[in-house]
Amino acid sequence: MSERRPIPFRQVHLDFHTSPHIKDVGAEFDPEEFALMMERARVNSVNVFAKCHHGHLYYKTSRPERHPGLKPGLDLTGAQVEALHRHGIAAPIYISIQCDEYAANAHPDWVAREPDGRPVGAGPLSPGWQILDMSSPYQEYVAEQIQEVLDIYSPVDGIWFDMCWDQPSCSRYAIEGMLRSGLNPESPDDRAAYARNVARAYMRRFHAMVKASSPNALVFFNCRPFAYLPDEISCFEQIEIEALPTGGWGYLYFPKNVRFVRTFGKPYLGMTARFHKSWGDFGGLKPYAALEYETAQMVAHGARCCIGDQLHPRGALDQAVYDLIGCVYSRIEEREPWLEGAEAVTQIGVIHGPPLPAAQMSGVEEGLTRMLTQLKHQFDFVHPAGDWQRYELVILPDCVEVDARFALELEEYLATGGRVLASGSSGLSEDGSELILRSLGIRPHGTSPFSTTYIRLEPTISTGVPAMDHVMYERGMRVTPLEGTQTLARVVEPYFERSWSHFSSHRQTPPDAPSSYAAVTRRRGAAYIAYPIFSAFGKHGNAYMRLLVRNVLDLLLPRPLLKVDAPTSTEATVTIQPGRIIVHLLHYCPERRAADLDLVEDTVPIRDVPLSLKLDGPPSRVYVALGQDSLPFTYVDGYARVVVPEVRGHAMVVFELER
């Protein structure tokens, strides 16, 4: 297919990691039935395999890596591509990169090495993957495989490269490469820097190979940290978020990361799977309600959908799997008129800093995503070098490093009417002794000596918060307000720091009396919370923390884009198409139904949900998508107000605009 297709909404990622000990590979493969089953399931793109993690190839080749159990004469990759194309279904081709058991066993010196010389990945008696070193001759080996695939199937719809993380290594090839680059192999930082340079170099190389062969092809590299996108975006034609909620990713991973990747101007999609647990869970099938939720969440954020499956070695698809996928994708297909070209509408930009060690991050982004989602605010994560000035409010959560240049940009943003909320060490020096962002209007006094303190709210931000001193389990900063800065909450310190030599009761020391230190301040358009409140909320879930932030945001952003009077379990997002705005309401409740496994089995409807959307003028009509009946609404003080009769899992409330 020579013309580049738009990114489809209904994709399947068809894993096919098949052991060389399986001897009947492809024995039951029927290309027409394969394509028909995909078509009946409303699938319009399938990632098919040329090479798997076992290092075997599934196409017609003279290379020795061809799977030894593949049915003689069968070009499985080509037959899948041809059959799918006959039915108008795209067929990007999958190639595994750093996992290749065949190459690792044939060339042990190509395996990445730990500093003590141990191979990276599974040991000789473990059933798992060995990890290849891309600074070894393996890179040329895999490049030859890629070129052969491109030569046979060009023009391809796309190439999907997997297992492409930065892999530090102390192999002789990596050590020689580091020395040539002036790096010290003894330094963990230098080993990491070299691994990143190697990864980015082969990504540029492989991307160029694909585009030279198939200029309209899609190219994607999986397993890259999203924080690297500012430097790597030129290697991607689309951005994919692999997020199997039951497979270890959880239900917060996608909504957290989609708010960052969608700011790069490239098509983006979410990937879940049909498995009860994670990849390769043969015989595992998740409930319909779970898959409906996961795909509804994707489209509610403006993303396309991909559902993972694994083809049986004999090449026959499971009918039950595609009955499930067909139910889910029929639902998506019906809604595509309200999804195609829809873009997210947001008010708040949350600064997404460079990657930090896990101990420093402490769930900042997770806690913030959970909190602002529960508050129904519309927000993106934005890189400090990105276009954050376009947002009405900017949040610097908990540990954002603000240098002199960034501080100057923030000061200019505030001077032109912007709003800023900072927390924790954001806007201060790391040790809390120096103020970097002057507009916060505080005098820092370093980190608190107390691991646990208390917060007493002033009436200005106490709405809905019980009147008491509320515990803060995380260590904060000591700050006092400068003249002209309003104290919105005060720190109440404990009698003493709990230790072996003096403690009181079972847990933290009780509060003593209000101190001179401020817990929350406001100076014109800038507010500051002296604690890492977002990571604290992610870790502890105290409802008062959410209410505190809600009340501060009400001061900074008194006219939010969206108001929804619904349970905190309700998710709300806003997208826009020419001539209309769509509010997505989702109400699904994952439950802990097994050890370390959250599941969605039931859809619990909520009814008569009041909703207000800020608009420049009254809409011409309001309705719930797929229905034709208009909903009564009022337009008061710049808000269109409506009551949604029912949200049964996912509802799309459409506001048609005057043209």
Count of discrete alpha- or pi-helical segments spanning 4 or more residues: 15
Q: Please tell me the overall pLDDT.
A: 95
What is the CATH superfamily label of the largest domain? Glycosidases
Sheet with the most strands: spatial strand order: 11-10-12-13-20-19-18-15-16
Give the biggest beta sheet. 9 strands, mixed
Oligomer: single chain
Overall tally of structural domains: 3
Observed structural traits:
659 residues, alpha/beta, 26% helix, globular
Sequence-ordered SSE layout with sheet pairings:
Layout: E1 10-15, H1 31-40, E2 45-51, H2 76-86, E3 93-96, H3 101-106, H4 138-153, E4 158-162, H5 172-180, H6 188-213, E5 218-221, H7 229-232, E6 239-242, H8 253-261, E7 268-273, H9 288-300, E8 304-310, H10 319-335, E9 343-344, E10 348-351, H11 358-361, H12 364-374, E11 379-382, E12 393-396, H13 404-415, E13 419-423, E14 442-447, E15 453-457, E16 470-472, E17 477-481, E18 486-494, E19 511-523, E20 526-529, H14 533-540, H15 543-556, E21 562-564, E22 571-577, E23 580-586, E24 591-594, E25 597-599, E26 606-614, E27 621-624, E28 633-636, E29 639-647, E30 650-656
Parallel strand pairs: 1-2, 1-8, 2-3, 3-4, 4-5, 6-7, 7-8, 10-11, 10-12, 12-13, 13-20
Antiparallel strand pairs: 9-22, 14-17, 15-16, 15-18, 18-19, 19-20, 21-26, 22-23, 23-30, 24-25, 26-29, 27-30, 28-29
